[in-house]
Specification:
With 481 residues, the chain is of the alpha/beta class. It contains 20 helices and 17 strands. The chain is globular and about 65 Å long. Pyridoxal-5'-phosphate (PLP) binds next to helix 5.
């Protein structure tokens, strides 16, 4: 690997590790070992990426020590002027990159961003006609009785979200998640024949169910979503359209998703993570129109405590990167690579949910190989390929064993791999899955959890994967030795 021991980046990270080593060497070692693992493994996890050294370094500093509850310029603590600067920069870059009227950079994660959004929508609905009637000005002034009365009056705290097995996220109303408890939830899914979103079925459900919020967005749907149609349906039934673009924010920032497929002009409120295809620090964000801005800004104290100023600094850096033309080229390559990976799998006989992809991810139905998702995931890991198992629509194996493997290209694209490599990786995945069988279960029959991978295949694929990666060094500017 073309290591550069005296580059600024090498010196920065090596020095940081030396400082940490002076206090708890095992932590420094684990950090170095993590870099080594990330370099060695073929990472196809669709929700992961590799943030730039600038993003990583923006997180390791004194901002971590600062309390800054409140909003920019209106804090509950003194001495927040530098936090104001970075939060304002993160919000400004976010507004520019996504063309949003308002951006709230405080959520600590995607889940937090969704909670902020749910409460913003509820408080807007409650305050607009309801509060005037109740004679109160702010949602915070409502008594328990007021709440009970309002809930009864509205008779509607309903959410319509994409079902988990069609590719939705657990925060979109899944029972064991708080969203499934806060809301009376109904889900929409995909057409059993084509695997594609069925907008007319969704429209029919919305008309009948009359939700307060329609949530669009996904974690495992390999196709485009038409947000113009989603908004039309939401307007027709008086619902607020919320789009959770956690997975595909990078494709929005990079202008791969435009027109009907860009959520920002169509949704009332948009939530996202910043660490997936957007390639920033681990965190969340909310974008919205002016009517919701003041409600979103009450994320603290409604759902959040003190923001993470060091992470907001890194969000500002990542969004500055995302506003450059190179990021647009990167985002387009993510999708070209996903198509090439899908084609590489299809040409070798793999079965893909919806038969392909239009975005950054591919969902392989591994039942054709006689495997569960859990076995496939473990077999691929044996050969150095990191993926995660995922349900497929109407999955007979449930959410634990599953019948699918979800793979995505944001990380390997950051590393520089291109369409030729993706085709070859499709071949490697197919070789592993073809070389794997379900192990016998202790009580007879076949296990859903255990597998046997032909060791010759494992060795061959691991060697080839490692050679492939050697041609695309991760963080070539960083040498920790
Ligand atoms: C990843 C994801 C989230 C959650 O993000 P965290 O930062 O892990 O909380 C929320 N929604 C969707 C659609 C996601 O894919």
């Amino acid at each position: 690997m073309a290591a550069e021991p005296y580059s600024t980046e090498s010196i920065a990270f090596r020095s940081a590790l030396d400082v940490i080593r002076g206090v708890e060497p095992r932590v420094a070692d684990a950090i170095s070992a993590e870099l080594a693992d990330q370099r060695e493994m073929l990472k196809l996890i669709a929700s992961e990426n590799y943030a730039s050294p600038a993003v990583l370094l923006a997180m390791g500093n004194w901002f971590s020590d600062k309390y800054a509850e409140g909003t920019i310029g209106r804090r509950f603590y003194a001495g927040c002027r530098n936090v104001d600067t970075v939060e304002a920069l993160a919000a400004e870059h976010a507004r520019n990159v996504f063309g949003a009227a308002h951006a709230y950079a405080q959520p600590h994660s995607g889940i937090d961003a969704n909670l902020v959004a749910f409460w913003a929508v509820l408080s807007q609905r409650v305050e607009t006609p309801g509060l005037a009637r109740a004679g109160v000005r702010q949602v915070n002034d409502l008594s328990e009785q007021d709440w009970a009365q309002l809930r009864a009056e509205f008779g509607n705290q309903r959410m319509l979200g994409m079902s988990l097995d069609a590719g939705g996220h657990l925060t979109h109303g899944f029972r064991p998640n708080i969203s499934g408890k806060m809301f009376d939830q109904r889900s929409y899914g995909t057409d059993p024949e084509t695997g594609l979103l069925d907008y007319e079925a969704l429209r029919a459900t919305a008309r009948e169910f009359r939700p307060l919020i329609i949530v669009a967005g996904y974690s495992a749907y390999p196709r485009l979503v038409n947000f113009r149609i989603m908004r039309e349906i939401a307007d027709e039934v008086g619902a607020t359209l919320m789009v959770d673009m956690a997975h595909f924010a990078g494709l929005v920032a990079g202008k791969v998703l435009t027109g009907d497929f860009d959520p920002v002009p169509h949704a009332n409120i948009v939530t996202t993570t910043t660490h997936k295809s957007l390639r920033g620090p681990r965190g969340g964000m909310v974008l919205c129109d002016d009517s919701l801005a003041e409600h979103v800004d009450r994320g603290c104290p409604m759902v959040l405590g003190g923001p993470l100023p060091h992470v907001m600094a890194a969000k500002a850096v990542a969004l500055a990167e995302a506003s450059r033309p190179e990021f647009g080229a990167y985002a387009h390559r993510i999708v070209d690579n996903a198509r090439a990976l899908a084609d590489g799998l299809l040409s070798r006989g793999a079965k893909l949910v919806t038969g392909g992809t239009d975005n950054h991810l591919v969902l392989i139905d591994v039942s054709g190989y006689g495997l569960t998702g859990r076995q496939a995931e473990a077999a691929l890991l044996d050969a150095g390929i990191v993926t995660n198992r995922n349900s497929v629509p109407q999955d007979p194996n449930g959410a634990w064993y599953t019948s699918g493997i979800r793979i995505g290209t944001p990380a390997l694209t950051t590393r520089g791999l291109g369409v030729q490599e993706m085709d070859e990786i499709g071949g490697l995945i197919h070789a592993v899955l073809s070389g794997t069988t379900a192990a016998a279960a202790p009580k007879g029959g076949l296990s859903k959890a255990h597998h046997v991978l032909d060791p010759a295949v494992a060795d061959q694929v691991a060697k080839r994967a490692s050679d492939l990666l050697a041609g695309f060094p991760l963080y070539p500017g960083i040498d920790l030795s």
